[in-house]
Amino acid sequence: MADIKVGGWSETKDADKETQWICDQVRSLVQRKTNKIYQEYRAVKYRSQVVAGTNYLLKVCVGGPSYIHLLVYQALPCYEGQLRLSGVQENKTQDEPLYPFVN
């Protein structure tokens, strides 16, 4: 993650192994929140924000043309890097930009 701006959101980047791992860690929470079981669940894009930890906005392909956006907080390593699912937005598209949200 080059070009880190403390407090500001990064540009949108292609997902990598780290962001897929984050998505995998919160998958059961996402499925519970959306009341859906996803056969496909693949991180494709992300943005990050360095705060007292890191916020991640993640675009996840959940099958065909269907996407969801996740907001996940990762605590600092001194707090064991715990992950917290902060929000889920459904009915997103491949081309829809990642914008911060609250829900």
UniProtKB/TrEMBL annotation:
Pfam families: Cystatin
Record SUPFAM superfamilies: Cystatin/monellin (SSF54403)
A GO molecular-function annotation: cysteine-type endopeptidase inhibitor activity
Gene Ontology process terms (BP): cellular response to bacterial lipoprotein; immune system process
Main location: cytoplasm
Record's subcellular location: Cytoplasm
InterPro entries noted in UniProt: Cystatin_dom, Cystatin_sf, Prot_inh_stefin
Claim: Protein transport is one of the keywords in the record: no
Gene Ontology CC: cytosol
Cytoplasm as UniProt keyword: yes
UniProt keyword annotations, A-Z: Cytoplasm, Immunity, Protease inhibitor, Thiol protease inhibitor
The Cystatin domain, residue ranges: 4-101
Family: Belongs to the cystatin family.
Record protein name field: Cystatin-B
